[in-house]
Design a protein that fits this description.
54% of the residues are buried. The protein has four domains: 11-57 and 66-284, Glycoside hydrolase, family 3, N-terminal domain (TIM Barrel); 301-493, Glycoside hydrolase family 3 C-terminal domain (Rossmann fold); 548-660, Immunoglobulin-like; 675-743, no CATH class. The chain is α/β, with parallel strands linked by helices. Strand 12 (400-406), helix 14 (425-437) and strand 13 (441-446) form a beta-alpha-beta unit. It has a six-stranded mixed β-sheet with strand order 9-14-13-12-10-11, with helices on both faces. The protein has a five-stranded parallel β-sheet with strand order 1-2-3-5-8. It has a four-stranded mixed β-sheet with strand order 7-6-4-15, with no helix packed on it. The structure holds alpha-D-glucopyranose. Residues 40, 54, 101, 148, 227-228, 344 line the site of alpha-D-glucopyranose. Alpha-D-glucopyranose (GLC) binds next to loops.
């Protein structure tokens, strides 16, 4: 195999940086270069041997459908994410795949996002930590990852053309943050650039994104691959830093590269650089003879799914289900489960557990009488009344009714966004009428993005949010309903009361080719907690069947920009369970508006009843910092930082405040700084006050410099004025360059001090 691209001809290099077929790169046998096969991901291997597509339409080889990211995100467990990654490495190699196209880590900016099922969270730290665990495990298993979709591809509407218009601080602190964390922590083999534009420039041609940020700032050394069909101009994309255009074959694109180099329009070094990075993928070659254990992976899918579901409500502890109960199960998802999303991630599952089968089995073992009524048929609403009546009648004869509801695949998928938050009307009607008839009612949800619980929430006793749990989800839900496993999931996306309350509501999904991220850094819970808006269930919420207590919180500064926290967690209930320690950070330090709190660190612990453990978590500087748009860098400001131990984003259990020295950066004064900021400067301030007096004297005022009480400040109308304006108004009384020299010079004590 060539040690560098320089040994290849221009034509060979041009073919190397352009896909050879829909799923593979160009082999160059006489140079010892093998083809590298890549395919989707992210929660199962979608290996197509015949017809190919990037929408999940054609046949794919059977593979395990593990819990999609929406479920893994709700597990809040890096271990769960890692175990998915490790298992996918085994299946990828068995199916001849060298690079698996995942994980997807875009931010759930709106609950209507069609691909929210394929992303982890509304929070970049949770997304980044889980994705890093997945990437490390996948690559440790010998398969490369593809971190996607870089960047700000947070909706499906017009995804191929729309411009995500995002200010720099919001990009850095939210929409690039998870990518930065995974790139620097886990070094994914590839990063997949998205279809959309960022501030008007296509990601595939965005030099700032693909080279200045990804390479020069973050030090990324892998290959940047395009989303399928995202490249519009191959030469421009090469110059921006896009190494591999997929899919192939793209003969015209390869020829365009050769022509551009030969005409002098493109430096061959740019082609060499891209070819080098694509050659770096040679290491990801599956071993031909490997296979995977279908049954063992199915059991694993079940086990992991049980750790993802979120118990939202459990009034009267109706769950876990009691032995000997008469149970009515209704809703088509009980027998025909929704367990994954539509589009390129769609897996040809080796088998699928239906919840009803599990409920029957566990119920029978506990002396329960279990009955099923369909309740509704999303393919044939004409039968809705009859099906509902039958379910209601059966509910009246049961001790507890379990209603399976959620979003049909026709309502949420890659390629389009949802248009409503509510469940289908026939489902809401079924829930309400069953709840009116049954002594106790449990609702089990299957949905990729959060749904509204309004209009029926108070009428039911328990709600188990399953999201989409993969092929083992049906069995897992049965285990959770009967208490074989205690629920331990936590919301990774807020459940709002109304769509209108969501921070992106006024701008999602955009208009006339632009979507403005007007909420800025206030995405999800950051918005609700900062404005004090009520939600149905907050980010981080989740119940279980046992009780945990936390104590002995110790917060220490481990550096000018780092904090360590120790907490004791005890299982004070009667059942084994898992608890998520959630630490948030509140600070007003720095010259910017900070969210009321942001997730700062988390970990999940498993404890038997009566046992405890002490955990230590580190808050890294990225969590403490804000992005300074004047300095164009992250800054940890000097000031007080309050670490909050929370049960969820709105429930603070304990907190401690600590002062941090930070980076010791004092934002420099510029002529755009306000007069008030300048007057506070010990040397420049008095000169400015004198100039103000001279100005007011010239205007006929009798006030003298001595009359101005600096401690009282000056009228806002002046103080908030940019200095450049006062310099102009002073008619020479103030010299901008002189002031800047004063500000840059030693801050001598004020003469009147
Ligand atoms: C799709 C998706 C991307 C996927 C690729 C290949 O359009 O956006 O996530 O990996 O094409 O199927």
């Amino acid at each position: 195999m060539p040690t560098d691209a320089a040994q290849l001809t221009l034509a060979q290099k041009a073919s190397l940086v352009t896909g050879s077929s829909f799923w593979s790169t160009q082999p160059i046998p006489d140079a010892g270069v093998a083809s590298v096969t890549m395919t989707d991901g992210p929660h199962g291997v979608r290996r197509q041997q015949q017809g190919t597509d990037h929408l999940g339409l054609h046949h794919a080889e059977p593979a395990t459908c593990f819990p999609p990211a929406v479920a893994v995100g709700s597990s809040w467990s890096a271990e769960v994410a890692a175990r998915v990654g490790a298992a996918l490495a085994v299946e990828s190699r068995a199916l001849g795949v060298g690079v698996l196209l995942g994980p997807g880590i875009n931010i759930k900016r709106s609950p209507l996002g069609g691909r929210n099922f394929e992303y982890y969270s509304e929070d970049p730290l949770l997304s980044g930590e889980l994705a890093s665990a997945y990437v490390r495990a996948l690559q440790a298993g010998g398969v490369g990852a593809s971190l996607k979709h870089f960047a700000a591809n947070d909706q499906e509407t017009d995804r191929m053309t729309i411009s995500s218009d995002v200010d720099e601080r919001t990009l850095r602190e939210v929409h690039l943050s998870a990518f930065e964390r995974v790139v620097t922590d886990a070094a994914p083999a590839t990063v997949m650039c998205s279809y959309n534009r960022i501030n008007g420039v296509y990601a595939s041609e965005n030099h700032w994104l693909l080279t200045e940020v990804l390479r020069e700032e973050w030090g990324y050394e892998g290959a940047v691959v395009s989303d399928w069909g995202a490249v519009r101009d191959r030469v421009r994309s090469l110059e921006a830093g896009l190494d591999l255009a997929m899919p192939g074959p793209q003969g015209l694109q390869a020829q365009a590269i050769v022509d551009a180099v030969e005409s002098g329009r493109l430096d061959v070094a740019v082609v060499d650089r891209a070819a080098e990075r694509v050659l770096g993928l040679q290491r990801w070659q599956p071993d031909a003879a490997s296979a995977f254990d279908v049954d063992a992976h199915h059991e694993l899918a079940r086990e992991l799914a049980a750790e993802c579901a979120v118990l939202l409500r459990n009034d009267g502890e109706v769950l876990p289900l009691a032995g000997g109960s008469r149970i009515l199960v209704t809703g088509e998802f009980a027998i025909d489960p929704r367990y994954q999303g539509g589009g390129s991630s769609h897996v040809n599952a080796t088998r699928v557990d239906a919840p009803f089968e599990g409920i029957e089995a566990f119920g029978a073992a506990r002396g329960c009488e279990v009955r099923f009524e369909r309740g509704f048929d999303s393919a044939d609403t004409a039968t809705a009344d009859a099906l509902r009546d039958a379910a209601v009648a059966a509910a009246a004869e049961a001790d507890v009714a379990i209603v399976f509801a959620g979003n049909p695949e026709s309502e949420e998928s890659e390629g389009f966004d949802r248009t409503r938050l509510e469940l289908a009307a026939e489902q809401v009607l079924l829930i309400r009428e069953v709840a009116a008839a049954a002594p106790r009612t449990v609702v089990v949800l299957a949905n990729g993005g959060v749904v509204s619980l309004e209009g029926w929430h108070d009428e039911v006793d328990a709600i188990l949010e399953g999201f989409l749990l993969g092929q083992g989800g049906g069995h897992a839900l049965a285990e959770l309903l009967f208490g074989v496993v205690s629920p331990s999931g936590r919301l990774a996306e807020t459940i709002p009361l109304r769509l209108e309350d969501t921070p992106s509501h006024l701008t999602f999904p955009g208009e006339q080719g632009h979507v403005r991220y007007a909420e800025g850094v206030m995405v999800g819970y950051r918005h609700y907690t900062t404005v004090g808006a009520p939600v149905r269930y907050p980010f981080g919420h989740g119940l279980g069947y046992t009780r945990f207590a936390t104590s002995d919180v110790v917060v220490t500064a481990t550096g000018p920009d780092a904090i360590a926290v120790e907490v004791t967690v005890a299982n004070v209930g009667e059942l084994a369970g898992k608890h998520v320690v959630q630490l948030y950070l509140h600070t007003d330090a720095g010259p910017v508006r900070r969210p009321a709190r942001v997730l700062a660190a988390f970990t999940k612990v498993a404890l038997d009843p009566g046992t405890s453990t002490r955990v230590r978590l580190e808050l890294d500087r990225r969590v403490l910092a804000y992005w300074d748009v004047e300095l164009h860098r992250f800054v940890v400001a000097t000031g007080d930082y309050t670490v909050q131990l929370c049960a969820d984003a709105v429930t603070v259990l304990d907190q401690a405040t600590i002062a941090l020295e930070g980076d010791g950066i004092v934002a420099g004064l510029t002529l755009q700084s306000t007069v008030g900021e300048w007057i506070a400067h010990p040397v420049a301030g008095p000169e400015i006050v004198n100039a103000l007096m001279a100005l007011s004297a010239a205007a006929g005022s009798q006030a003298q410099a001595a009359d101005i009480d600096l401690s009282a400040g000056i009228p806002d109308i002046v103080g908030l004025m940019p200095m450049v304006q006062l310099v102009h108004l002073s008619g020479g009384g103030l010299d901008g360059d002189h002031l800047l020299a004063l500000a840059a010079g030693p801050a001598l004590p004020h003469p009147s001090a």
